[in-house]
Amino acid sequence: MADAKVIPFDDDRSRGAAVQRPSRRRSAGNSRLKGEPAVVREVQPLHGEALPQDDVPVTREERPSARSREGGLERRIAGGLAFLRRRLTGDYEVDDFGYDEELTDQVLMSLLRPVYEKYFRVEVKGIENIPDKGGALIVANHSGTLPLDGLMMQVAVHDNHPAGRHLRLLAADLVFVLPVVNELARKAGHTLACAEDAERLLDRGEVVGVMPEGFKGIGKPFSERYKLQRFGRGGFVSTALRAGAPIIPCSIVGAEEIYPMIGNAKTLARLLGFPYFPITPTFPWLGPLGAIPLPTKWTIQFGEPIATDGYPPEAAEDPMLMFNLTDQVREQIQHTLYKLLVQRRSVFF
Question: What pLDDT, in 10s, does the model give residues 165-175?
């Protein structure tokens, strides 16, 4: 990893929980023995007259019993205790990147999902453009001052793809030097944004996500919102060509407004070792409350894939081809952003 080439742009949830059929109970007289079937008497109308609707005897609707509900709760508690036992005893698997699939599905996704569904109310389009199997490289715009867009894109792929695929994000080296954040990022499947790691993941058939704008995109001022920054020299294109993986452009609308960055305290950023220190209408003036993102309405659209498997092996070293493909991906993302912005009626609703 020490001599890995860094890409020059910084960059089953089985939610379908099994449907449990409720246990049923029947109402019968006190004299009925245990196991004896209940008898429902048929009431005949007098003199051929139909009984009024309110007078027709109706059997009690079968409802889930309290015992059934308690049984479901007990099963959930048992599942949680089994999960904790596996964590404490080390009886779980991680890959050589540190990715912990069980922890991601059971804990991290569960924490992100309310933000995704209730707070940002993310709408996903074009999920069918991500293949059901095999490697694929998702290239997206980057914005929002804090990298919440990458996390929301990860939930979007995991929760909406028919095959329940997992998105492995390539992150800047800053992520892996921050305490706690480093460990969580590894557990969630993120890895360093270098060509070597990206190619290994694609060769394994993983869906890999990259945001070529890097800090230039996430830290740009609010006045430049939805204007894509430079994509670098096309390192992600070279990686996709070597792996023969399709490139899927992704456009994210809504992240630009969660922290409107109106200033940058560069001196403080240098002291802290950050690429920028944002000043927004609420931060740092409101303290910790100013760090709460605004509840904007998001749209994530995955575009049509750009195939790379038809190129010869030496194409990955062709600078003109990389420039053309990079420009094609960038233009497709920018065009889709403008299209989504025209369709959007409100930032928040």
Answer: 999 999 998 99
